[in-house]
Amino acid sequence: MAETGGAAMYRVSMAEQGHSGLGLEARQASVRAFVEREGWAPVTEHQDIVSGKDDRRPGFQAALTRCRKLGAVPVAARLDRITRGAHTLSGLLTEGISIRAADMPGADGMMMRVYGAMAQKERELISEHTRVALAAARARGAVLGGDQGWKPPAPPCAAATAEPRKEKATRTAHRLALEVGAIRAKGVTTHQGLARALTKQGVPTPRGGTVRTHTTLARIVERLAA
């Protein structure tokens, strides 16, 4: 197969999805730098949010389709980002698809098979350790699965939760009454002008900021009038 381009593959587990995207950005930078060093054209990028044991994931399959059509090389930051299945990896290599990993730039087909077998073994050990840990937790009487948290018998009252917010907004408006009055005495009467003047004076907002908008000033003026 002629290595004319690199098809980037990114896989993020469900646990990783909840964290910052910096991990994914680092993988993307690694793959793109690898493709550039090889002198290939970046032909496509695909991402999946799923476990590495699922080789039916749509991004993985779409990338393989593009590779077969264009003669491109699947590239990932690490081999397990492509697949953790030794059988899948061996089948792709036998088919003639030259898989590459940015952290193993010099690995040939034989090395890929060895690392693929190791990745699959690692996944099997993780699954076994998880099964044993869950069994031990059940033996201790722990209740697993589902939402174990307390739930109120009825949803919170919207009016009750809105009242404290209304009182806080009213107190804030009255604290600004002197500043607003002094600015009006100078001839500034529009909401936009009042907002600009308070921002310039550095009068803090309820959340600790200093920038105000004419929309918030309109609400404050309405509360003062009331």
Automatic annotation (TrEMBL):
Keyword Chloroplast recorded: no
Name the UniProt record assigns to this protein: Recombinase family protein
State the organism of origin.
Answer: Muricoccus vinaceus
Give residue ranges for domain Resolvase/invertase-type recombinase catalytic.
5-141
Sorted alphabetically, the keyword list is:
DNA recombination, DNA-binding
**Which PROSITE patterns does the entry link to?**
RECOMBINASES_3
**PANTHER family annotated for this entry?**
DNA-INVERTASE FROM LAMBDOID PROPHAGE, SERINE RECOMBINASE PINE-RELATED
